[in-house]
Each structure stands twice: as C-alpha cells, then as structure tokens.
Design a protein that fits this description.
With about 150 residues, this protein is mainly alpha-helical. Helices cover about 50% and strands about 10% of the residues.
C-alpha cells in the first residue's frame, strides 16, 4: 500500500472541497431541462435530498457521482484506506436504495442518472428524464405548462 503524499490536514482539506451540490453535471442537466420548459425545485427535505424535484409530477431526480455511489462502470477501488472508503461508499449505496424505497412508498417516481452519463451525452441523459416526466404527465393528464 502506498503512503499518502499529503499530510492528514492537507488530505482533509482536499476532501472537504469535493462538492455535493451544484456539480457541473447536475447544473448542466438542470439548465437543459429548464431550457426545454420543465420546471423543478431544488433544496428540499425529501429522503436522500434529490437534486431535482418535480412536485406536480411526483418525480425526483438524483445525479450520482461515479465514485461516491459506486458506479458499476467507472468505480475504482481506493488504494489507500481501502476498507474505510469501501465501508463509506457501500453505506452510500445502501442509503440510496433505502431512499429509493422510501420515496416510492410515498408515491414518488425516482430517476437516478450517473454523472458519466451526463458527461458522455447530455442529450441522452435529458431524454431519459424527459421520458419519465412525459409518462407522468400523461398519467396525470397534465401538459408542460401545468408542471
């Protein structure tokens, strides 16, 4: 196992600078959906604190980071303090599943998008969300202006 080249204080500072809100992929998705006329809310108290909430459609969207939420395609096992990080990340995954179940039991439609999906093709990620939103609009008999 390699030793960390940073002091514990430096490493702590670096880790504290990792954003949990308003990440570039999240903002890109928000802007694209807003530009298409889809109105959402941010900053909420729902389980898991979804990144986007469409209240009238009872739909929430999470933008999950590949490392923090253990993307099956891009997750790279940490090389230092491996057990600590795996425990933390596995806890995130379990909490994600619990939040999904909780939201669904309360009648919410849950959409999860990986950050790499947005980076690789914003259009495809937007289409994935729009498909769910349109399905919800049809079920509720709403138009875009009603949302």
């Amino acid at each position: 196992m390699r030793n960390d080249v940073l002091t514990p204080e430096q490493r702590s500072y670096c880790m504290s600078q990792i954003k949990g809100k308003n990440t570039k992929p999240e903002v890109a998705l928000r802007k694209a959906l807003w530009g298409l006329g889809y109105r959402y809310r941010i900053g909420n108290r729902l389980p898991g604190k979804p990144d986007l909430v469409f209240p009238s459609l009872r739909t929430v969207v999470f933008v999950d980071g590949c490392f923090w939420h253990k993307c099956p395609e891009h997750f790279v096992h940490p090389k230092t303090r491996a057990q600590f990080w795996l425990d933390k990340i596995n806890g995130n995954v379990a909490r994600d599943q619990q939040n999904n179940e909780s939201l669904r039991s309360e009648g919410w439609q849950v959409v999860r998008i990986w950050e790499h999906e947005i980076k690789e093709s914003l259009d495809d990620a937007v289409a994935q969300v729009v498909e769910v939103l349109q399905m919800q609009m049809q079920r509720k008999g709403l138009g875009l202006k009603d949302c």
